[in-house]
Every structure is written in C-alpha cells, then in structure tokens.
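Why predict the complex rather than its parts? Because the way molecules touch one another can change local conformation, and only a joint prediction can capture that. The input here totals 1226 residues.
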Amino acid sequence: MSTRSLSKGCFVFKPSPKKRKVSRTTAYYFREGSSDLEDSELRFATCQSLQKQVKSETEQIEEELNEQLFDNLVSFLRRSHSAFQEKKTEWTCRTKSREIPTAALVLGVNVTDHDFTFRSLSEVLQNNVTPYIALLEAKDCPGIKNLMQKLLGQLMNCCIDVDSSEEEDYEHVSRSRVRCSMTTLINWYESATKRTDSETPGKKRTSSRHWQSPPVVVIFKDMESFTTKVLQDFVVISSQHIGEFPLVLIFGIATSPMIIHSLLPHSVSSLLCIELFQSLSCKDHLSTIIDKILLTTQFPLKLSEKVLQVLINIFLYHDFSVQNFIKGFQLCIVEHFHSNPLSVLCCQLEEAKRRVNSLSHNQCENVRRLPSFRRYVESQVSEKQIALLTVDSSLKEAVQKLLEDLNVYHENYFPILRCLHVFTSSLPKYPLGKQIRELHCACLENRVWETEEYESSLQLARMLNKSDLVTMLQKCVEILVSSPGREFDEIVEKLKEFLTQFQKLEEAYQERDESISPQKELQKKTNLYHLQKTLLELKESRRSKKLTKFEMLRFEVVDYIDSLVRHYLVPADHKTLHEIVYFNTASVLREHLNAAPRIALHTALNNPYSYLKAFSTVVTAAEGPTADAASSDQVDDVIHARFIRAVSELELLGFIKPSKQKTDHVARLTWGGC
Amino acid sequence: MCESLPFLPKVETGIKVQKGKNQLIANPKRFVKKLEAISDDEAQEVLEEKSYVAVLGVCGEESMTNGSSVGGGEVYTFQTPKRSNKMAELASELAQTPGQSAVPDPSKCPEKTAKTPQSSKRSSSSQVQQKTKKNEFVSTTPYRLRKRLAAPDAQLESESEYSASCSEEEEGEEAQKEVSTVLSHQKTPAKTKAVSTPPSRKTLTKKKDNMNDLVEEYFEAHSSSKVLTSDRTLQKLRRKRLNQQTLHDLLQKSPLAYAAEIKELNQQYESLFSKWMLQLHLGFNIVLYGLGSKHDLLEKFRTSMLQDCVHLVVNGYFPSITVKSVLNSITEEVLDHIGTFRSPLDQLEFIMKRFKEDSSLELYVLIHNLDSQMLRGERSQQILAQLSSLPSIYLIASIDHINAPLMWDQAKQSLYNWLWYETTTFSPYVEETSYENSLLVQQSGSLALSSLTHVLRSLTPNARGIFRLLAQYQLENKDNASYPGLSFQDFYQQCREAFLVNSDLTLRAQLTEFRDHKLIRTKRGADGVEYLLIPVDDSTLSDFLEKEDEDI
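Output of the joint prediction:
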C-alpha cells in the first residue's frame, strides 16, 4: 500500500494478527543495532536494571526533597480547614468572611519538572487529606465554562473512585447533562459528604484517613498561563460560596509571587488569603541528584568530564530541568551499553569479576585494544607483557585485579573529593568552584594539583583561621568515617591527631597570651587583594621570623590535605580500564539532545555540493541555447521545472514566503530578512 | 522568466545597514581611522565586510559557550567576501558567455556599477537618477537592476540582457535569467554582501555626522510608501505555467546530480534504523532534521522495520491534513472505535485511556514534515506531543523548516522527549512539494478546476445555473480588491430573474449543498448581510466558465 494519495494524509497499516505476534522485543533491536554482538543480551539486561535503579533512586530523592514542602502544605490545609470548621458554627463569621485560603506555590522556572511535583502532591493529599482534588491546566481552560466543566469532571470522577460503583450511572449523567455551575458543585459536595457520613462503619474505615468534611482542593498548575478573566471570574464566583463548602486553592507559580497581584486586580486578590510556599530551587535539586547519583560508588556507570559538562550546560543554559538532566543520564546509560561491547563489565564488582571469567576471546581482544590497557601493558616487564597479550587467562586475571583497583579508586575518590570540597567551598572567591560538581569536573579533567586554581586555593587555605580549620577538619572526619573506604582509618587517625594538636595549642596559647600574631592582623582583612599582599609580606618576613606553632601546624594540615589530593584524586582517564565504566562520547549526547537544525541546514547549504549544483544549472543554461538554438522548448521546460522546484523547496524550508502585498512576489525570511 | 522574481528588499537592507553601523559605533576610533586611511571605495568595502564577518564570528563563538565543536561558530562565518563576490561574477559570466549580446564588461557587473556612482561611464542623467533614488533607499541587486531598467536611459540600451526582458525577445534569455535567479536564491549570503550601500554613501558624505546618517537611513529604509518593487508578474510571461503533472514529468527526466554520493549517505542513515527502534522502545521519540527530503528515508525505515507492527503514516505536507484526521485514523482504524467525539481533546483523552488500559497496544507513528503548515499550530503540536508522550506510542518525525524548533516550548519538548538525528540527504523534495501548494504552480489550479467540474456535473441544470451566476458576478468584480462577495438578497433577486429558483428556501437549500462541497463560502459582512464567495482564484474560475460554455 502506498502512502501517496491525493485525498488522504493518514495511512494506517495493520499487519495480519498472525504476523503481529512475532513483534520483536527491545532486546532484539539492541542486539541488531549494537556495534558488536558480544554479550549483547547480558549488556542489555545490565543496562535495563541500571536504568531502573537510577529511576527509582531519583524518584526517591525527589520525594525526600519535596517532603518538607508537602508537610508545610498539609499543615496549611489543616489550619485553613479548622478555620472553616469554626466558621461553620459561627454564623456571623460565615457571612462576613469571603476569603478563600490560597497557597501560592513558587516552583521556579523549570516548568517541565512541575508535573512530577504536582502528581506527588496530589497523591500525598489524596492519601492524607481529601479525596477531592482537581488539577487544572491553562491549556484546558480557555474559558470559565471549560474550567468549571473540567473541575466538576475531575471532582466527580474522584468521588466515584472512592465510593462504590453503584453511583456511577448517576454521576455520569450528571456530569454530561447538568449545567456546570457552582450550585451543582455545592450540591454535589453536600451529597458526597453526607453519603460518606451516613455510610456503614465498615465503609467509613476507608475514608477515615481523610478529615471530616474534607476540603476541596483546586490546583492551578500553571497560574501564569491562565487568562486573567478566567481566574478572576473563578475567584469571585467561588468566594461567593466559600461559606458553603471548604475550598482551598493552590497556585503553581513559575516566576515570582508578585505575579498574583499583576494578574488579579486588588478587588479580586483581596478575596484570597494567600500564604507563600517556596519549593527547593532547581539548582539545589540538581546538586542533590548529582551528589546522590553521580558522586557515589553505588552506580557502576560514571560520566566523564565532557559528558557531565554537556549535561550541566544544557541544564544551566537551556531549561533548568532536572527531569531533562536525568533523561540525559539515561541516554548516557543506553549509549554506553549499546556502543561499548566491554560495558558488560560495567556492573558491581563481584558480578563483574564473575563476568570476566566468562569473557570470550573476542572480548579479550577488545580489552587489549583499549588504550589505557595498552599503556598498562607497556609498563609491565616483558614476560608479563607477552602473557597479557597472548594468554586469555592471564589477561582475565589482570583485568580482575585492575577492576578491583578501579573500584578501590572510586571508593577513595569520592570521600576525598568531598573533603577537598569542604576546604575549597569556604575559601573566598571559590577558586575551584562553589559546587562540588565543578570540583569534580576539575578533578576529572586533569591533575587538579597542577592547575593554577588549586595552587591559589592552597595558598588561601594556608591563611584560614583556627576555628574554621577545626570545623573543616571535623567535617572531613565525619565524611571519612561514614564512607565505606578501607584505607581511611589511617587518615582519620591523622586528622584526629591534628585536632587534638589544635586543642593543645589553644590551651598553651591561653597560658602564654602573647602579643598579637600576624595572622590576627590577617583576619581583619577581608579583601582578597589585601590578603594576598599581606601574604607576600608575610612570606618575606617569614624567612627571618620564626613561625608560631599554630602556623606550623596549619602548614602541616594543608600539606597533608595536598598529599591526599595528589594520592587519591588522580583523573580517571589515567586509570587503567577506565573506558569500561566511563561514558565519554560527549558529542553523541550533544548531537541528540541539543541539536542545531539551523546549523545543519547552513552547513548543508554551505556545502560545495549545492553550489556545484547551482553552477551546473548555469552551465546547462549556458549550453542550452547554443546547442538547440532558438527553438529549444524542451530544455527550457526542464529548467523551468527545476526552477519551480527550487522555489518550492525554498518555501518549504522557510527561506522565502509569498508576499501578501503583491502577486508573484516573494519575501525573504532568513539571513537578514524580516 | 525570472526577470520578475523580485525579492522585497526593504527590510533586509534596513537590517543590514543597522548591523554595519552598530559595528562602527562600537569602535568609532577604528572607523575614523579607516575612513581617513582609505579613500578607495572598494578597499573600504572589503574592510567593512571583514569586520562584519568578524562580528559574525564573535557571535558564533558566543553561541559556542557550551564548548564543543558542534557549536557552529565556523558555520556562520562562511561568507568570506572575496569568494562570494567571485562566485557572483563567475556565475554571471557563465550565464552570459553564450548570450547573443556581446557587451563590454562594466555593464555586465551591475552590482559594481551601481555601487560606484562616481564611475566615469555614467551619463549625467543616470547620476541624477541615482541621487533621487537614494532617497528611496532600496538596494538589493534585483531591485537595482529593475530600477535601471525602468529609467529611460540611453546608456542602458546597451545592456541588452536586461532591456531585452522588457520586450521578451528570446527563449534563451529567459532561461538565463531564470538561472541567475536560481543562483541568487541559492547564494543569498553572497548577495547580502554585494548589496551593502553605505560605502558609496559614506564616501560622498564622508565627514558628516554618523549618527545623523544612521537615523535618516533607518527611517528611509522603513518608510514603506517609497518602496518600489517590480510590477511584473508571472502572468506577463509568455511561458505558460506548468501544471503539476508536466512538472513532475520534466523533473523525472532531469537526472539527479551526485546520485552515487547521496546513495552512500542514505546507506549510512539506514544503518541507524535498529538503533532508532531501540531508542523508540526506550521511551524516546526521534526527530530527523537536515537538508533534503527525508520522505524516502522514512519510507525505507517503515518498510524494513515496521512491516509487522501497527503503524500510522502521516503526510504532514498534505495540504488538508489536520490533527483531527490523525486522531480519527487512530480511533477508527487502530482502535476500531465507532463513534464521534465532541472535541479533539476528548478524543485524545479517549486514546490515552485506551493505550494506558491495554498494554499490548503498540503504535508507531511516522510523520513526514511535522512542521508543515497544517500541523505547526500550537494546539496541534500540543495534541501530538501529548500523544507521543504515551509510552506505547512511538513517534518518528521529520522537520524541514528552518524555524521548526520554535514550535516547541519547554513543556512540549519534554513531552516529545526528542532525540535529534541529523539526516541531511540532499535529495529533492519531490513528494513534499508535489501538492499544489507551490508558489509557481498553485495558480494553475487544475485540481480545483477538476473538482469543480466534477461536482457541478452531478448537479441539476438549475443548480449549475445558480453557480454560473455567482461565478460570473465574481469575475465581473475581480478588479475590485475589496469585493466582499455577492449578498444573499441580491443573489436571490438575480436567480429569480433568471428563473432559476422560485423561493428563498430553494436557493438556501441549493447553497447548503454548495457549501457542503466547499464550492462556496459565506461570510457575514459588517452590516450583518450574508455574502457569498467562490474560494477559487479568478483564472481558474474563468477557465471553468469557458469549459462550461464549451459543454453547452
């Protein structure tokens, strides 16, 4: 069946049901498209499980992050609800007060993440507070009528969910037939609450998790996109009825709470009793995600510096969307397992060791081809070299050992990185970056101790005052104690020793109570420039002057940290077999996530090919008239046709459009057009 | 044929000037120095072009903040002025060599002569003209050519290739011009280069205040009343418009250049098919972009990968495609649902519900040209995006329009969950442009004509008469730009006079039938009167009437 037709634009193809059964699985396509057939099934399984793991982990993190916010919201609802309960009894209050309790939920600009937040919010509310929740989106509510329809539809549906199905018919009819008005809503609410009240105790159990006469919560997901009129009308209408049923509004706000006042005139906003809630900023959110997912040994797959940079840049410069960041990470996982046959070893250490034993010969060859492994081989003695290159079993042994090394490296890397971050994040001007991700990138990129920034941060660290230094050391001890690394006992000992030394120093200091030491002077200067200047002076004087005990100790501490960094924060691509666990084809990621169609078009049109084509047209035209003289109707037609096609194509690509001002004229749209 | 394919040059020049000036203002010192140092026109122009390119380059680099090679800095700096000039010259030379007229060089490079008004060869009259022209400030190349054409200048008569087109002497001439316009389409950047007027002006008013100039020029450039474009239309050509069929046949005959290379390129893309399938299954959707028709590639994908699955092909370029028809084919043909929906949103909800309930349902959706006229609307995109966000609907689509990504905001983009693939195929857009929506073919209206005749043939003679009346009336008023249509009352009167109807009701019944066949359109005027219109262009209508006359 052809998809070309003059009368149709959509074509459905349905294979016969018999054939349909043999539809292929995802694994099949993984195998088919994969660059190397080795272990593809195993790889696919690993990939899938890893993806699932990441997904559940991120979801959990998000839940934890939102917990605080949701708790606040629930307590707000409780407060407003109890107010309503009171009012119910006091007739005077009921008639006077028209204010609708409203929660303004400032969520930040990462609109795409809001969906998830709202979903979990409504889940939380559904479980703890009320079954009556309506989620409204601006795109569904162009007018007040649609809004009411949507609102009633959602409320009555959720009512059905809670109650038994016997009422369903009735509800169904009412939704489609009854005029959607506030009165209907109130009647419905009264009947719904009455029903739950009068139900048998057995049934009541199910609804006992909700409060008595539960509030109706209406959530406006994207408050900014609603038309002003719709919002105003809704607020005004419902404020008329606020005494009759407990209504609570929640506004999802992406920009700033001021928007409420610019959207609603004072007369309307005065009907709202607004309380502000602030969700965690998306940057903090991202930091947590990176911290919990990328900076742990929990997930075997790691991202190289470039890849991480691309993902972070997309986040910072394009969308601020944590979901997209996670999506990018998921894509990394797929790409890594799909393109790298050795990724089969990218799993937990025990499993990986087992898998090494069952590697095929081809896979062993793949290992030998890894640049990092070659470097490793070259550093060995010659007999060992031969063994590694020719005998599979000795290779497997070596690989197992190397994988273990790699694992140990990671186990040590992350805690030390955090320790270093404790130091660098409190230095003035943050030479190595404020966020741990920046530090991580710097460490991955090259030997961090060779960089200028590291040098200057060490300089600054040598000028820290005692109390800061002590708190930092304590933090470091905490980090190291809580981490699973095996080699840290010694380090912890050492750090503790420093701490006690500081303690002693203090005691001694109190006894002596000498003149003001130069570092005290130092503390007064907050300016970096002055700091550096005094530092230089100090350097001069230091040669002549004897250092105080504190200074000596401080130097010792900093040097010790430096030695730790040099030992543990070696960039990953210096490690053998890093290719197995690091995904580093940033270009792929960039191409697929952050594509530039305009550039593709430009490049294609820049391509000499199209110029040649154009020139060939010139040539044909040049030859045309001379060859066939004046009566060459045929040639002309072809060129005419080609010209028409060129114009049509330009129109399709959006370079020109027919100008409305004149017949048969076109206007240019790109490259400096209108 | 194309001496009259004039681009509207107004806005473009305005922007151009601004750009150049901004640059100059940015470093006035340098600019002054340059002005003093260089008196020669062309050298200065080159310099300015260079700085312009430099600015572009800077922009490009800025856009590369994400720090990778795909940034595109080098892409946008492609126009080295020297090369593009050369190319323009070369092209015109090539096009002219076989020409019958052997006129000496200077007149052959119209851009150059136009740009240097001091050129000694100019007669005084042309100089005067040049000056008056300046006030109108319009200066793209084709415009300049036309301008000179229009002037009754003795000198211009020697420039045979342009004056010739007035009298429309020879076929060959037409062909040449056609080509040069093709060229001017294709190397637009080159043209913007050649266009720049400020240099010539600057040398004249060298010491004048720059700011003043800028302001003046801005308003000159934006005074729409002064803009002159050619009044030539395609109608004036002797060559008849081609209809779609002949066009297609002709193009079939012309061989595709570089077929082998294109084939190789396509094979590269075909190796990605199973990867696409994998990624579709993993919850991503795929969008293809890049120059060249992706129809065949997607078709190949369909035939090789999707034979055993339920799939839906949507030709976005189909002129009357709507989201509703897409949704309809899903509900009716894929889900076998009989019944109607109140709105597309309801329908979408239904589809989403069905797909969520039944996890065994899977659907592949292929959309050629997701960015087509009919689908690019906000609502359509929203619906398609929501559709594509279903885990068991796999969407693979192609886009061509240069601004296509602007259709999607963050929310839609995250619903679509795109993975982008560049598939530059260089193949001609045969299918996509094949419907009669092209600029140059559209007017032939053979499709509309045939549908008209078909429908009309099935009607009663009276009904045909009614339609004829309306058509004739519309043709009589074709010169009236604000013709609102024929009001119902007048029409009724006329029909009665012609003994076509006997009551208001019969006419209304008849009109309803016309309306159902989309033969007429009604709209209400400001005074509440109903006006009737035939939504077909005049030439088609007159063709139709002629044909009708023959039949009778």
